[in-house]
Amino acid sequence: METAQNFSNATLNDWWARTGEWVEEPNQRRGGASGVQLLAPSTAQQPWLYSKRQVGHRFFSLRYPCGRPTVLREKNAMQALERLGLKVPTLVFYGAEKQGKDWYALLVTEALKDFISLEEWYSQLALQPVDSAVVSEVLQAVANALTTMHKAGWQHSCCYAKHIFIKTKSAQAPEVAFLDLEKARRRWPAQGAALHDIKQLGRHRGAMPDSDWQLFLQFYCNQNPKLRTKLA
Hints:
The protein is α+β, with helices and mostly antiparallel strands and about 230 residues long. The protein has helices spanning about 10-15, 70-85, 120-125, 130-150, 190-205, 210-225, 230, and strands spanning about 20-30, 30-40, 50-55, 60, 70, 90-100, 100-110, 115, 155, 165, 175-180, 185. The longest helix has 20 residues, at about 130-150.
């Protein structure tokens, strides 16, 4: 049994028994199943939680040629990005246990309060536009966060607008958080990680208009000038 990070006294069995509404129905892939449930707080003081539940859902690497649960890779990526000063959901519990030939694994995180995905934010702008200065600040913040991640050699690998979350409040700089990091990995040279993620975000940017995409690229390339021609 692996419990590389366990931030409560509860065991894997305790957390497995705690269930909630499916917000991402289990999907069959990677040799198993993975889904996400929303767990209601036990008391008014506790946060809402997301519990990613996996059975036999594995990744393979040189270190783990026989495979390990993908939430292990996600947990490691979350901790690495947090050390870089980037925002990720607060980790509450990670645990994995092999039963027979299958791994049973859980990753429990706190819900991000007052954050919405970049995809949802742009959908809202279609109904309730905001000042162009606010849009510029958000895109600059996203460019800054991605630059920090990429220069450290981290590739998100699922860099969609629905996995980049933002929080905007008046008189405060926008905040950016990254979710769904189960495919994240180190990649060298770091330029490869950057090109992969930015091109992927361009294909999966949701309702972001072309003009905003070009503005984002300007902000990003100002910090990564060697990529300007490759991302033009």
